[in-house]
Design brief:
The complex is a heterodimer of chains A (544) and B (366).
Chain A: E1 9-19, E2 24-35, E3 40-44, H1 51-58, E4 66-75, E5 78-79, H2 85-94, E6 96-99, H3 103-106, H4 113-124, H5 129-142, H6 148-151, H7 161-173, E7 179-183, H8 191-208, E8 211-216, H9 219-225, E9 228-233, E10 236-242, H10 243-248, H11 253-260, E11 276-291, E12 296-312, E13 316-320, H12 327-334, E14 341-346, E15 349-350, H13 356-363, E16 366-369, H14 383-393, H15 400-413, H16 430-442, E17 448-452, H17 460-477, E18 480-485, H18 488-494, E19 497-502, E20 505-511, H19 512-517, H20 522-532
Parallel strand pairs in A: 3-8, 3-9, 6-7, 7-8, 13-18, 13-19, 16-17, 17-18
Antiparallel strand pairs in A: 1-2, 1-4, 4-5, 9-10, 11-12, 11-14, 14-15, 19-20
Chain B: H1 31-41, H2 44-61, H3 63-66, E1 73-76, E2 79-81, H4 106-113, E3 118-120, H5 158-194, H6 196-210, H7 214-224, H8 229-240, H9 242-255, H10 259-267, H11 271-307, H12 319-328, H13 333-360
Antiparallel strand pairs in B: 1-2, 1-3
The chains are: A alpha/beta (544), B mainly alpha (366).
Chain lengths: 544, 366
Amino acid sequence: MNTPVKPLLAVENLWVRFESESNTVEAVQGISFTIAPGETVALVGESGSGKSVAAMSILRLLPPSAAVTAEGIYYRGRQTTTLTTEQLRKFRGSEVAMVFQEPMTALNPVQPIFQQLAEAIQLDANLDAKATRARAVELLLQTGIPDPDARLDAYPHQLSGGQRQRVLIAMALARHPKLLIADEPTTALDVTIQAQILELLTRLQRELNMAMLLITHDLPMVRKCADRVYVMRQGRIVESGPTGALFATPRHRYTQALLAALPDPHPPKRPMDAPVLLTARNIRCHFPIRKGLFKRTVGWVKAVDDISLILRKGETLGVVGESGSGKTTLGEALLQLNHSQGELQFAGLNLRLHDRQAQRLMRRRMQVVFQDPFSSLSPRLTVAEILEEGLQIHHLEPDPDKRRLLAQKILTEVGLEADALERYPHQFSGGQRQRIAIARAMILKPELLVLDEPTSALDLSVQAQILKLLKKLQADHGLAYLFVSHDLRVIRAMSHEVMVMQNGQVVESGPTLEIFNHPRHPYTRRLLSAALELSTGGGATEAP
Amino acid sequence: MRAKHCHCLPCRKGRNRVAYCTMPRFLRFSPLALRRWRRFKTNPRGLASLWIFSALFLLSLVAEVISNDKPLVVHYEGKLYYPLLITYPETTFGGEFFTETDYKDPDILKNLRSGANWVVFPPNPHGYASIDLHATRPAPASPGDGHLLGTDDRARDVLARLIYGFRLSVLFALALTAIGVTVGILAGAVQGYFGGRVDLWLQRFMEIWGSMPELYLLIIFAGIFNPGIPLLLILLSLFGWMSLADYVRAEFLRARNMVYVKAARAMGASDGAIMFRHLLPNAMTPVITFLPFRISSSILALTSLDFLGLGVPPTTPSLGELLHQGKGNIEAWWLSLSTFITLVAMLLLLNFIGEALRDAMDPRKE
């Protein structure tokens, strides 16, 4: 594709600097890239690598605190850095359009989508009301929304995440842009929807002969639809080239690491006849829907509906499902963090019979690690205080000096330096914070760890490190994991058994290999094909 | 990895590595608090106001040494006496009565200053309640005759009453603020943390409570009881906590759904531990931001009540009572003018501090 065609967009030596009271961040440090007409170019990198900032500076959408300098941003050979505000306004949307990551916040919640679409359409051509509506319907049809005429009067919250993203794409297309910038267009969506949106984008691009700048951290997605790739790291482009060549023979060490960080496609070996640790029978978690003046209960949301499971010592049970399938609620029900019904037995003890005091003591043996390491650590406590709190609550170590030593020991075990103890969570990166969260759970020497999407908020390479740490901890301490995730690749790398959830119910469960190689339920098949089509390997194979 | 250096008060320049700092934990500030303090210091007006106000307040705490009708030291017939600390009968200094010495009595003074005897009075030799019995002009008298700011309508020294009145106002305001903040935090924390029905009922209670006519209640109670500082403190506290409770409640409501609260519950932490260890430190921003403004409004409240005659008894030094006298004796400009300047300066300083604090705590700058 990158024949010597005149590029549609050429960015030369772009620098972006953010200055604040306390420090200066060089977000983008002299990058150059080109996009040919009709070409899909991917800008790949981990969070903080400056890829979004670089894309935003093309349309000058950055806040005033950002200092942007560039030798040139040429659009069809025309310099765009010198455009006046008025010219810039015309340039945005009609020449270059943008699709954002979060479709909920990118749409105005108090307007029906027709109004929002009409705004874009009327900027393009002066149409009367009827023609505008017709054009809006046409746009929605193009993006594959069923029954577009009725959908036009819906408000954003009445649409699903995928549909909202389609509306956003329709808005971007309204003015016939030549270049579409898609900033993590699928990150906020479920796997099956991700595949659909991706397909839509590639189809539209082909039909309309648009160029696309795809900004993402998702390597399999890049491999599937990009023609050329630029790999960014810490504000610089470290490697670029045609997709096939780059994935086959990555030259830069960082690219190699990034590709190697994809989770292991082989599930772990299951331990031999381990004793049963946790038995849950008919767990139900129903939330009432109350309506009307007197808040009568008119129905129930069955977040978890009649689920039974057995977890053995040293074993990992992977719970997989799309958002809203109830997998997190199930984890919380097992930890008794919400109101649920059903039998719960932990190491031979009936958890339901015990009073609050005994329940609190049981909590030591069942710990949890949450998804977002930025919100799961108390921001005003030091790491030492966070780690020692559990010891204090459970009176495990009355001597403060010994407590400090224990905290230090656990910190080294999760791979952090001992002088991290006196610092606060915000001074750490996401991966380090997740290590602290794991240390907080591990210091109590639990037997069961509920891992609620422990790697979803992390970058790919960090994710690989955390998974490695979790595997090591499991091997060292014989921990049982309940691993909740929407990421099938991670589930496959971690679990001995897999449970697939949909709408609060288990649709299929069994050993990992069997589920991945011979899915029986149609939902599992759909999930697997959506996720693994994007991934490197095909089905799973037994670990060597 | 950065900020490996300790920032506790004794080694706040960051000389020691954190791991080697032996200072107790409470002396160590969080980096956030340090950053806010640094931001506060960039506001020269606020910083200067803080120093001036603190200095004035500390000075007023030793008002007895600055303004008193008893001497600090007396040297009488080869012996030293400390009338400020010990009560001596008049007979000690050659008087006739066994009652406490009146050091302003010309006869006694003559004794104290004769021969090798000497006496050291405080800079302003008048107490807040001492009536100048030896005044040559009718009260209220304009500045002069040893009264820097003149006397009030009972021939008491205005400067002395201002100094003691300032101290009383600030102490009263601090106490009122402390009570209001404590109750407000507790009420807000309970509402925000437990939410649901507890929140609903407490909110309704606060609405009813808040719609009670505060001023009339004060007038009624001032009629029933003998008003004094304790009663005023109680009455004003009854209503003073509500504005803060709303803010704390909002912060708790926001924070209680954070994952770290869930993590603490999963760890087995009790409700109290979660509320005060995990949530409260995150809810302190509005509390601290409002402190100076609350103090200044408490001072104003006391002053207005005194001005209306509903406050402290007339013997107590009070700015409001001085203003009231100023109103009664409109020609005695030194009464109202000096009190007015004192009040304005005090409130202005507090507002400047508050402004700087508000900017320093601005979450948009973090």
